[in-house]
Every structure is written in C-alpha cells, then in structure tokens.
Amino acid sequence: MSTIARLTRMNLRHSWQVAVAIGSTLVAASLQLLIPELLGQAIDQTQTAVSGGASGAAAQEALRTSAFVLLAVSVLRGLFTLAQNYFAEAVGHHVAYELRVACYEKIQRLSFSFHDQAHSGDLITIGMLDVDGVRTYLSTALVRAVLLVMLIGIGAYMLISTNVVLGLLALSFVPFVGWLSSITQLKLRATWLDLQERLSVLSRVMEENFGGIRVVRAFAAQAYEMLKFDRASKSALGLMHERVEIYVRNISAMNFSFFLAMGLVLWIGGNKVIAGEISVGKLATFLTFMTILQMPVRQIGLMVDGFARASTCGSRLFGLLDLDIAIKDTADAKPLEIREGTLRFDNVSFAYPDAENRPFLKNISFEARKSETIAIVGPPGSGKSTMAHLVPRFYDVAGGVITLDGQDIREVTLATLRRAVAVVQQDAFLFTTTIENNIAYGDPWAKEQWIERASESAQLHDYILGLPAGYKTVVRERGVSLSGGQRQRLAIARTMMMRPSVIIFDDSTAAIDAATEQRIRRAMRLFAKDRVTIIIGHRLSSLMHADHILFIENGEIVERGTHEDLLAKGGRYKALYDLQVRPPDDMLPEQEGAS
C-alpha cells in the first residue's frame, strides 16, 4: 500500500491534468448511463405514436428527435472519453519520464560495490519494463476504478429501482465476471512476472553472445550458443502458451455467464412485456445497459491487475531509487584544493563488501610527490588494481586514510576529486561516437589542438590521420573497430585531456608493443612533471624507470625501493625480473633457438 500511495502522490503532482481526467470520466460515465434510458424512451415513444394512431410523419419526427439526442449524447460521451484517455495517458507518460530519469541518474551515482553485483540486463529491465508497468497506473487503475464505481453503482440503483427482479437478473453476471476477471488477471500477472524473469535470462544470453561474438566464432561455438538460446526461448514460449490458455478459458466462461444472464432477462422480461407489467422500451433499457456494462465489468480484472502491476513494478523501482549510495559527498564536503599535489597512503586497509570482513589490503603506507613516478607490481590478485580504485574513491577505505595535500579524500567533493585523479584502466571502454568525441569525453568543449596534442602523446595521431574521416571516424560499439593497443592509447589520450593532478595507469599498456610504449613514456615525461604518476603493471620493462617501486603480495607491501635497490636485495622483485628478462637455466641453446 505504501508503494501505491507513493505512486498516487507522484500522479497527483500533475494536479490539473488528473482533475481533467477524473472529471471527464465522471461526465462520460454519466452520459453512458443515459444511453440505455434514452433508447428505451425512444422505443416507447415510437410505439406509443404508432399504437395511438399518429401519422407516419409524427412517428418519424419522434424517431428523428430521439436519434438526434442519442447521437448528441454519444458524441459528447466520446469526446469526454477522449479527454479522459488523453490526460490520463499524458500524466502516465510524465510520471514514467520522471521515474526513468530518476533511475538513470541513480544508477550513475551508485557505487562500484553495487555494480559489482548487479547485472546490467536486470537494471535495463527495471528502467524499461517496470517503468512501463507504473506508467499505466492512473489510466488502468485509478480512472478505471472511478468509471466502474459510477457505472455499476449508479446503474445498479437505476435498474433495481425500476424493476427489482430484472435489475438483479441484469446484474447477476457482474459478481461472477468481476471475480473471474480478477482471478484471471492475477494469474496472468503471476505468470507475467515469471515471464519477465525468463525474458531477462533470454536478454542476458543475447547480450553475452553479442558482446563475445568473436570468441564464439573463434571457438566455432555457434551450435552451443544456438542450443542455449533455444532453451531459454522455449522456456519463455511455454509460459506464453500457458498464459494464452488461461486467457481463452476464462474469457469463454465470462462470455457464457453474460449471455446466460441476458437470456434470462430477455425471457422473463419478455413475459413481463406480454403481461403488460413493463414496456418494450424498459426491456430494451435493461438489455442495453447489460451490453454497455459487459466490457467495464470485464475490466475489473484489468483494474485489479493495474493496482497489482503498479505495486510490483513500483516496489522494484523504489527499491532501486531508495538504495543508499555507499560513496557520496559528506554533508560538509569541500572542494579539493591542490597545492603541492602530494598523495599519501597512511596505514590503509580495505575489504570488499562481500568478503566477510577479510582484508584485501593491509596497512599500506607510502607517499608520492609531484613529478614522482610510483610503480606497483605483484602477482595477480595481490591488490594492485584495488589500490588504484581507492584513490578516486570508487571504494572507501576500511582503515587508515588517503590524503591529497593533507586533505582526507573522504572529506572533499567527489566531483573535484575525480577531476584531480584519473585512472587509465587496462580494459579501455569506448563509446559509439567519433574518435574526437571519445578523446574529449572528459572535456567535451576542448579545442581541437588540445585533442591532437593528447593523441600525439599517446602515439595515436598518425594512425587517426590515416583514417578516411580522420578524427571524425565513428568508433563502433565498444571500440571493436580498433585493436587492443589502439583502444588503450585512445584511453590514455582521453585521460591526458583531463590534465589531472594524479594519473594512474592500471596495466593500461599491456596491449601496446614495447617500442610504442617507450615512445609514449618519452612523450609523457613532460606531461608527468606537474603531477603524481602511478604505474601498475606486470611487465617490468614498463616500471624500471619509476622513482619508487612497491612490490605487493597478499595485500601488503613486501618490498620497496628503486629498480637497482630491489635487484640488489635479491628478493621477490629480483625473482620476477629474472623470470621476465633472463631465460631459465634449464633452457638449452637449441631449445632457445627453436622457440
């Protein structure tokens, strides 16, 4: 009920449109109730004129008058129904727009810890199908409830006050059809939720297949993928057949009950007409009212479903919108002020939310000053990338503190922090737009020469000039039209455009050949003079030039120093260096030559 109340308040924000919709519904329902009465009166007037010996012209005049009144009432009813539908739908679309934007904005602000566990297909389902589920709440639930109360309540009073027996017979199908319609819609609703889950599975299968189409082709796995897709598709199809069976079976039962009630009214009412108890027009009034009432009564189920669907979809929507944002500005957060640009990790510890408080980083401490380069190396899973994600506050530390020029990064605004700290990740994501727009993503109004200068530093400028459209070349989805090294170089250029105070390369040159990487390093020496540079990698040739090297293992710094110092210590760094640079002792010359 809290969800329904919240949705009602959202709709009522558009007060005048809702007022017009409900007012039009009241008028349309009143006019619709007049139609059976006017039709009955027209029949009685015509019959009286004929039986009373009136001339043909008088009878025709009576018919014309009755027909004109009926036509006028029907046209007015149609116009007010049009206004009801238009304004109810308009409010629904406004509410859907507001919720869609709110969901998208919320997803933009939710922390990495949320996105680590949420599936993009499920979020799209909430943002599309669930929003559409609450869009129709006003038109299918609230307005329809007003219409049904008017038609059934006032209509029942009019019929029963005219003739109790015929009134009860005319209304006899209403409870059964209303109950069966509600049960049908609730069953369809339950199966629709199940169908939604199965369609979500189907969309995930498609999404993964499209994203990994090159892997599928490389391993000739088309038959397996088709089998997986066919299995998910058949699961959805089977449930669709079940829904059709429920619908057809119950619609047939509702039709039977309606025509049974109409037959009883016609039989008993006809006998009353013969007996002179009621007129033919009164009998026509009862039959016409039943015909008019048939569809609205069937819509009781749609009304119940409208409330149920709005409640279910609204619960998921508001569940997302009400999520607490783990990483956000504090109430007294201030803009970050960069003076010296000194980055410091002071006894930092970290544990992922689902790691049951097992620390992933333990007591990390180091300092990096402006123009210094810090290299971080270690085995996979040692916590290198996690350290990179802590600096821009993608996650918050569990213990200790990270400061920039003595300012705790948790006490400054996220916007200023993330303008000052840039992370170039190994998996470079590119948008489906031009190369120019991808490079200038962090600074959309950047001058053309700045974009070219950044691409030159990333050793990408010459390649771009060789393309038919140059910087206007559109990068296809996820950058598949570029090689891995080109995507990484474009990501480097995009980061350089931001001119951050701290730049972190998270294994971001792994797909770049050694010669190009050296040229990038040389080009970035001038760029690195005014900022802290952190390089995370596995290839020691990328790290040897660093001012300080940290060797991370099991979330702890086990060795630190310059390249020469660490080689002299003969520890883990030396072992890794020997493994990468020197051939194993057991490799024979002929094996080495053969390899």
TrEMBL record:
It is a multi-pass membrane protein. Keywords: ATP-binding, Membrane, Nucleotide-binding, Transmembrane, Transmembrane helix. Its main location: membrane. It is found in: Cell membrane. It comes from Mesorhizobium humile. GO terms for molecular function: ATP binding. SMART domains: AAA. Pfam families: ABC_membrane, ABC_tran. The chain crosses the membrane at residues 141-160, 166-188, 247-268. It comes from the Bacteria. Residues 343-579 form the ABC transporter domain. Belongs to the ABC transporter superfamily. Gene3D superfamilies: ABC transporter type 1, transmembrane domain (1.20.1560.10), P-loop containing nucleotide triphosphate hydrolases (3.40.50.300). This is ABC transporter ATP-binding protein. InterPro entries: AAA+_ATPase, ABC1_TM_dom, ABC1_TM_sf, ABC_transporter-like_ATP-bd, ABC_transporter-like_CS, P-loop_NTPase, Type_1_exporter. Residues 19-309 form the ABC transmembrane type-1 domain.
